[in-house]
Specification:
307 residues; alpha/beta; Purple Acid Phosphatase, chain A, domain 2; six-stranded mixed β-sheet; 14 strands
Length: 307
């Protein structure tokens, strides 16, 4: 009987230790989730000077506010994103560029929505409409421009919503910006069936062209296509979609990314003399948590040379 009681005592202590370990694990996970939530809530403003030898004199010192992957969902509401852009207005950029991915389906949406989309799709359309209400009042003397991502619902309606907000859609299209007698092009690259090799033939090698691409996935085509008089046709590429991996541990991401997206995961790269920026974006996909990545917008200053 004494041996049995002793054995039961040891078993009880083992259970207590296991319970303590389980509680400690839960607390650690809760702390980690809290850190990830706070990290996803703080958007950093990055600044960079970009040297473009083809930059016309009239655009020397032009500033561009580049924000991509707003991904409205959950705690990242239109009002919250709108307050962010109200604060960013103090930077007084000459130009605003939005890089697509305006909403994201939350995990709850995915679990509660039928395969056909339905209510979730309508909700995302309403969310971005509310966000564009704030963008309408954003002042950018050289204009506001936006591309679309394949994940953005109903491009025709999105184009209409952007136009009503005073933003020029660049859905696989280009626009000419003029100042005095100088010219600069913006070209939006959104995926789909567009022949980008053919589109590059619309530009000459000496043109100043800034490309906004929804994802690094299209970079191989952009890097290998040529201008009408041969040679490189674009001078700067702005891209996003990767979220910097969003939740990245031990150099691995929980997001499903392609090989090219992993190669151009975040930050600046230069390929064949072409500067390429992959932003980690403003919002999050599915759930408002980030580890190993940082929400960000970029304030870029264009220069023709280094002083």
């Amino acid at each position: 009987m004494a041996k049995s009681q002793k054995k039961n005592g040891k078993l009880s202590r083992g259970r207590i230790l296991a319970l303590k370990a389980f509680v400690a694990l839960l607390l650690a996970l809760a702390l980690l989730a809290g850190v990830a939530f706070v990290n996803a809530s703080i958007v950093r403003v990055r600044q960079a000077t970009v040297v473009i030898p083809d930059l016309p004199t009239a655009f020397e010192g032009t500033t561009i506010l580049y924000a991509s992957d707003i991904d409205l969902c959950g705690a990242n509401t239109p009002a919250r994103a709108g307050r962010l852009f109200d604060q960013l207005q103090s930077l007084k950029p000459d130009m605003l560029i939005l890089g697509g991915d305006y909403t994201s389906r939350s995990l709850l949406d995915i679990l509660n929505t039928s395969p056909s989309g339905g209510a979730s799709t309508g909700n995302q359309v309403d969310l971005r409409q509310s966000f564009f209400h704030y963008i309408y009042g954003f002042d950018a003397p050289l204009g506001k421009y936006a591309i679309a991502a394949p994940e953005d619902e109903n491009w025709d309606l999105l184009r209409q919503q952007l136009t009503e907000a005073g933003v020029q859609p660049l859905f696989n299209s280009r626009t000419l910006i003029t100042s005095d007698d100088d010219r600069m092009w913006l070209a939006g690259v959104c995926g789909g069936d567009t022949n980008y090799n053919s589109a590059s033939q619309s530009f000459a090698r000496g043109d100043c062209v800034i490309v906004i691409s929804y994802s690094p996935e299209l970079l191989p085509v952009l890097l290998t296509s040529e201008a009408s008089d041969s040679g490189r046709w674009c001078d700067l590429v702005l891209t996003g979609h990767t979220h910097g991996g969003q939740i990245r541990l031990f150099d691995r991401s929980l997001l499903t990314l392609t090989r090219v997206e992993r190669q151009y995961l975040t930050g600046w790269r230069t390929d064949s003399g072409l500067p390429i920026l992959t932003t980690e974006g403003v919002g999050c996909e599915g759930v408002n948590l980030r580890l190993g990545s940082t929400p960000e917008v970029w304030m870029l200053t264009l220069r023709s040379s280094i002083d």
